[in-house]
Amino acid sequence: MFAYISRRLAVSFFILLAASFAVYVIFAFLPFDPAALTCGKNCNDPGIIEANRRRLGYDLPFFTQYFLFLKGLFFGRTFGEGAALINCPAPSLGYSFQQHACVTNLIGEALPVTFSLAIGAIVMWLALGIGLGILAARFRGRIVDRLSTIFVLIGTSLPTFLTGLLLLVFVVIRWGLIPFPSGNYTSFFENPFEWAQILFLPWLTLAFAYAALYTRFVRSSVIDTSNEDYIRTARAKGLSEGVILGKHTLRAALAPIATMAGLDFAGLLGGAILTESVFNLPGLGRLAISAVTKYDLPIIVATTLLAAFIVVIMNLIVDILYAYIDPRVRVA
Amino acid sequence: MAKVKKSTGIAIAAVLALAVVAGGLIQMSSGGSSKGGTITYLTHSEAWTHADPNRNYTGQHIAWFGSYMHRTLTAYARAEGAAGSDVVADLATDTGRSSNGNKTWEFTLRDGVSFEDGTAITCEDIKYGVSRTFATDVITDGPTYAIGMLDIPSAEDGSSVYKGPYATSGNDTAAYDKAVTCSADNKTITFNLKRAVGDFNYTTTYLSFSPVPKAMDKGDAYDMAPVSSGPYKIEKYKSKDEMVLVRNTNWDKKSDPIRNAYPDRIVVRFGLAEEVRDQLVLNDSEKNSMSLDAVLPTNLPTVFDDAGNPKAAFAERALNVYDPYVTYSAVNVKKLPCLDIRKAIYYARDYAGLIQLGGGAAFGGDPADGVIKPLMGLDYAKVTGLDEFKPEGNPEAAKKYMDAAKTACPDVYAKATDPKRGIYFDFADTDTNKKAAAIWIDSMKKNAGITMKFNYIEAGSYYAVVLDQTKQGDLSRAGWAPDWANASTVIPELFTETGGFPMSQNWGDPAYKAFKEKSDAALAEPDRKKQGKMWAELNQYVMDQMWVIPGVFSKTQEIWGSGLGGVFFWEPQGAPSFGDIFIK
After folding, report:
1. How far apart are CA B55 and CA B207, in angstroms?
2. CB–CB of A44 and B469 under 8 A?
């Protein structure tokens, strides 16, 4: 197992290196000038744009820029001169002149928000989706199954921004069932109650959408597994339905769920853009979308790389978990 | 244990009683206003465009930061109506003393003025603050009047030989030291100007004439942590989250006759969804809050009647007034070098649809006939030659100009009518603007056969993007208000190459040379009446060339919670007088 993980980590490193290069190439050839973009709204002086280009290192050859970017990850970088000198210590992902901060700091502030959002949401949707999916399969064709179908239809039809907005306007503002949060985000370690209070509706919004999909998936997976020969054998041996479901059916039926949940979780960590926007959560999704609309290249590169990193790592974790959940699968 | 609990209880009761008494004292009224509490401002923007005083330029931002944090040499009077445009002394003891035919201006600092850490504000701090304006590569987006007015030579490329305080080489600091001098006691600052500026003390109302402590300046990063010279200082400021201001204990009311400093705490909540922001105020869920953004048009009927007057429930917490702005669509003349196409766009536009989208004329304002508003008095004259204008669009006129364009400028015509290319319009990315885009697309296609496409830009960074000439589209939506009551802060700013807001990029137009000469002559004209006539003629010239598609002489609506008092519209800034708002 150790050799397997080491091998996968080495491969992951090269995947990330390739991703960083690809992102850099893409942005190097986009039809806009990053030096002009940092120059501000009154800037129409080519001399200033050239000065900016030198200050930010955009006048250097492409490979030198890429090398400096990589070097910054390990040794940090400085930008500007005199009293306006900016120092971004390692691991430096550059400096955002739109946000007036080192990108690593911005990522460091946004990541816990998105992680908090994703972790709560996945717990909610797995509990709801798996629970409802099992019930729907167990009582196939009965009222629970039909209700779950309605839930699935609503959950998959409603876009998250609408669910979120409806929850905010009615639950918080109109009916006052939950007080309007006093801040946009509070760390779990600072105030766990406020942390949960701020994130409850965003969790619910995401859980509603994802749980619907998981309910449908778990239901069909459990039904399929229930028709397997070894389940029939277990039933013939006189095992109770509870034991059959808990020990035999679910173990096999839920294995694919681990893959699905891992990738969905990775996707969310990359940024739940709509949910973060509606609930005003300062997470990675909003950081990324704001950077895209402002052409804030250092942040775009950093968030893209981070998303790639998360997907690579989550894939690794899922593969390892898979082996534990389903004994038929062995690490190659 | 019980004894401990009892004594603790008594202590708590005593503290509470004291708090109530203290609270009563704090809430003590003075002339209808009261001190204490927390005012919350709500906005859809992710952060302030800038918090650095040298980079504040919009009226709302200047009004907000000028009320709470940044003091400057002079300021506008805190009064309703025209009286608000009077200049009063702020950090200075008076509104400035001019000599040398208005080419030299002197200001002396008051006693007892200090930064938030208690350090006394000196002439050198003002001088350093002004010097940052010259670092145009780092201190972006702010007004550049200091560069244009101070008597500092220009380099061969036309830029100033002084490059600001950060440049480490090729910088003529002696030239700056000669243009701006401090007295021996470090209390009096003198500005030597390259031309006569009779109203230079209006220029010094800009926060770019605020003091900045050199030791605390971190260039670009100062935007997130500016040092206060006013009644409040920053406790927290985080983009996409919030800004929290608390009292600056080193601010002395005796040295500041114009700021009230009513609340104890001021919070700005950034990044709220537009509907959520409006609903919080409309439902009065946050009684001590005020929206910093325009009310969504769909919510206007909840607040105002058809005539635009606040309904009874909102009589005390809504305003609908003419602001100093003129909205327009700047034509990028470099990309649309065809007068006939520009005219076709003007006549094809469904103005009525657009104004209706904004809630109708009662809320949107009146059709503009140029960039100078009638409120400007001397500088305004009705623009002629726009007789074919019809609010719902005039397809006959539009087609007439399109036909003319077919032969006069076939390349631009081909681009405008090609569904694959079309004319690109820059819009801030808001829900309302997307609906406006639909009206533009429809009316252009229907009335002139023009294909219009849209480039949506995040609202907070809209101007930073469109004023980048490499990024600007064919048309860009904009609004402008005079920096003070003279169209010298409108015409040259918008339509000359060295202006601060040159979105029309019209200096390649053959008509530009004559225009520039007349604009320079108007700037130098000492007779204010004659000067006003010249600005009106230049406004006509702009419309003859259709360098902008005029929008509206606009109105603005403000809403706030029932817990706030003292709100009035501060005309020179086109924003509420934030410093006068208190909690009832």
Report:
1. 8
2. yes
pLDDT (tens digit, 9 = 90+) per residue, B561-579? 999 999 999 988 889 999 9
In B283-372, where does DSSP find H-type helix? 300-303, 339-348, 351-357, 361-364
- Residue ranges of A 151-180 with Cβ closer than 8 A to chain B: 165, 168-169, 172-174, 176, 180
> CA angle, A101 as apex, A100 and A103 as ends, to 5°?
130
- Strand B475-480 relative to strand B318-331: parallel, antiparallel, unpaired? antiparallel
What is the phi-psi region of residue A80: left when phi exceeds 0, alpha when psi lies from -120 to 50, beta otherwise?
Answer: left
- Probe site for chain A from B43, B218, B220 (most A CB atoms < 10 A): B220
The model's pLDDT over A21-45, given as tens digits with 9 standing for 90+, comes to 888 888 777 666 777 666 665 555 6
Distances (CA, A) of B23 to B15, B28, B35, B126, B286: 12, 8, 10, 38, 20
Check: CB of residue B539 under 8 Å from CB of residue B372.
Answer: yes
Of the candidates B436, B457, B460, B432, the one whose C-alpha atom is nearest the C-alpha of residue B299 is B432
Phi, psi of A217 (to 5 degrees): -70, -45
* Measured distance CA(B213)–CA(B118) in Å, rounded: 12
SS3 B470: coil
Query: Which of B209, B448, B435, B230 lies closest to B342, judged by CA?
Result: B448
User: Which residues are registered as beta bridge partners of B425?
Assistant: B454, B475
Of A47, A100, A277, the CB nearest to B223: A100
Which of B137, B285, B434, B469 to substitute to test the interface with A, most A CBs within 10 Å? B137
Q: Decide if B241 contacts A287 (C-beta within 8 A).
A: no
CA distance B482 to chain A (A): 16
Report ipTM (2 d.p.). Answer: 0.70
% of chain B beyond a pLDDT of 70:
94
Rounded to two decimals, the pTM is 0.76
Q: Among A260, A184, A265, which Cα is nearest to B277's? A: A184
Residues β-bridged to residue B192: B104
- Label residue A201 exposed, middle or buried (CB < 10 Å: 0-12, 13-18, 19+): buried
Cα–Cα distance measured from residue B372 to residue B219, given in angstroms and rounded to the nearest whole number: 36
B420 token code pair: 């694959």
What would the pLDDT profile of B183-223 be if each residue is shown by its tens digit?
999 999 999 999 888 889 989 999 999 999 999 998 999 99
Which residues of chain B make contact with A103, given a CB cutoff of 8 A? none
Structure tokens at B452: 């219009």
Q: What is the DSSP letter of A172?
A: I
B284 touches chain A (CB under 8 A): no
The radius of gyration computed from the CA coordinates of chain A, to the nearest angstrom, equals: 24
- Cβ neighbours of residue B428 closer than 8 Å, sequence gap 6 or more: B456, B457, B458, B459, B462, B477
Residue/partner pairs of B437-440 with CB below 8 Å, 24 or more apart: B439/B350, B439/B353, B439/B354, B439/B357, B440/B349, B440/B350, B440/B354
Are B329 and B549 in contact by the 8 Å Cβ rule? The answer is yes
CA dihedral B493→B497→B498→B502, nearest 10 degrees, is 40
- Alpha-carbon torsion B333, B335, B337, B343, what sign? negative
Chain A / chain B CB contacts < 8 angstroms: 165
B51: chain A residues, CB-CB within 8 Å: none
Determine, for residues A173 and B283 on separate chains, whether the beta-carbon distance falls below 8 Å: yes
Find the residue in B nearest to A98 (Cα): B461
Whether A101 and chain B come into contact, CB under 8 Å, resolves to yes
- Cβ–Cβ < 8 Å for B389, B321: no
- The HSE-up count of residue B282 (CA atoms within 13 Å, CB side) is 22
Q: Compute the residue count for chain B.
A: 584
Per the CB < 8 A criterion, the answer to whether B74 and B572 are in contact is no
